Each structure stands twice: as C-alpha cells, then as structure tokens.
Amino acid sequence: KGPKASPTPAKPAEAAEAATSGEATSTSTSPSAAEAQAAEFAAFKRRRWGYLLFTMLLGFSSEFLLWMLAPFFPSEAMGRGVSREVVGLVFACQPIALLLGAQLAPLLLRSVDPFLLLQRSLFLQAVVIAGFGLAGGVASPSSFASCAATNRLLLGFLSGVNEPAAQAVTLRLVPGHAVSYSLSLVLGSRFAAMVAGPVAGGMLYAFGGFPLPFLVTGSGFVGLGCLAFVIGGQTHVPPLSQAQTDVPTTQLLRYPAVLLVL
Questions:
Q1: Range with lowest mean pLDDT among 39-53, 187-201, 225-239
Q2: Of 192, 222, 260, 190, nearest in space to 122 by CA
C-alpha cells in the first residue's frame, strides 16, 4: 500500500473564520448570563431589599450597644468606686457572651423559624437594655459592677443568637452572585456603628444623664422586633437542615484563613 495522505492543513482564511465565530459565540452567551444576573439582583432589590436592610440595622445596633458606652460608662463606674480592671472586664463580657450565643444559634435554627427567633431575642434585648438604664442609680461598687457585667453578658448572648439568624435569612434570599456585596454592606454597617456609637452615646448622656442612652437604644430594639414581626409575616423561611448548620467551631479552626483572621 502507498503512504497515507497527511491531513490537509486548514487554510488561514478558514481558521480565522472559525476563531471569529468562536469569539462571537462566547460574546453572545456572556452578556446573556450577565443580564440574567442583573435582572435577578434587580428583582431582589425590588421585592426583598428589606431583608438585607434589616440585617444591616441589626448589625449596626448590636455594635452600637458596645460603643455607645465609651464616652460615659468608665467615668460613671469609677465614680462609684469600680476599678479600671473591672471596667475593662465589663466591656469584655459582651463579645465573650456573643461567641457563646453564636454556638447555640445553629441548633435553634434547625427547628425554630428564624423570624420568630429574631422577634423573641430582640424584645428580650430591649427589656435588658432599658432595665439597666433604670437601675443606674445603684451606688454600691460591687452591685453596679455586677449589674453591668450581667447586662453585657445577656446582651452579648442574645446578639450571638439573633445575628446569625438574620444573616442566615439574608444569605438564603440574596442571589448567589451578590453575596459578597451583601456581606460588605452588613460589615460596613457595623463599622458605621463604631463611629456613630460614641458620638450618639455622649450626646444622649449629656442631654439626659445615665438612663437616656439605654432607654433610647432599648426603644430602637423594640422597633427592630416589630420590624422582624412585619417582615416575618410576609415571607416563610423554612428551618435550616442539620447538614446546613452542623459545622462545629473546632472544624472551622482547622482552616488557616480562619486562624489568620483570629
């Protein structure tokens, strides 16, 4: 038999035409995917933007609870005979309790409606905040420090429960391609509270004394609880399954990125 004929190389004109058609196909499909994502996010902003706004307000309020104390609480406590070390311990109580409450939140979200959990925890926070403002007349150093530490522990624990609930609702309703954008807004609201908290706390203290910052903040949490009631009545969010929530902290600590953030 004679030698096999080698395949005929493609002509330059045909290769250029094939490359051009491939680019046209890719450019024709790429805009359609981008348009679909844009349409999905536009629909989210029209119908469900309130969920993201609610999560931002909750993050702002939780951070505000701590930072509003900075202008007046240390001087009030030391004026009653509380040491600087104990004042620092009072400030540390809230983030410690928040970490503990965050471990309980996934267990509750398996069987409890997220909005019901938000309503109860927010109303409880309002009572705890206002109650400490009304109990500010305690003169004994040990009693005042005990009340303050208990108040911070309860508020931190409840924040650790309701913040994951709100974020779980939001992340399940936000389009997948907009999750990072939504998380940046929630994080930005917390940073805004770090700026506004000391200013607002100092102004309220100067205007109405020790009880006023707590009474105003407690009223704000009542409003958040009512907002959770209204939003929850409009949308049903099924409880998270065990596969979605059963991620222990010890497993998260195995990732280098998590350790780096800590």
A1: 39-53
A2: 222
What residues contact residue 105 under an 8 Å CB cut-off, 6+ apart?
160, 161, 162, 163, 164, 165
Does the pLDDT of residue 17 top 60, yes or no? no
How confident is the model at residue 131, as a pLDDT? 87
Average pLDDT of span 198-216: 93
Other CB atoms closer than 10 Å to residue 105's CB: what's the count? 21
Average pLDDT of span 37-61: 74
Cα separation of 150 and 146, whole Å? 6
Write out the two tokens for 111.
């069987």
118-152 pLDDT per residue, tens: 889 999 999 999 988 877 778 788 899 999 999 99
Q: What is the DSSP string of the chain?
A: -PPPPPPPPPPHHHHHHHHHHHHHHHHHHHHHHHHHHHHHHHHHHHHSHHHHHHHHHHHHHHHHHHHTTTTTHHHHHHHTT--HHHHHHHHHHHHHHHHHHHHHHHHHHTTS-HHHHHHHHHHHHHHHHHHHHHTTT---HHHHHHHHHHHHHHHHHHHHHHHHHHHHHHHHHS-GGGHHHHHHHHHHHHHHHHHHHHHHHHHHHHHH-SHHHHHHHHHHHHHHHHHHHHHHHH---PPPPHHHH---HHHHTTSHHHHHH-
Alpha-carbon gap, residue 91 to 70, rounded angstroms: 9
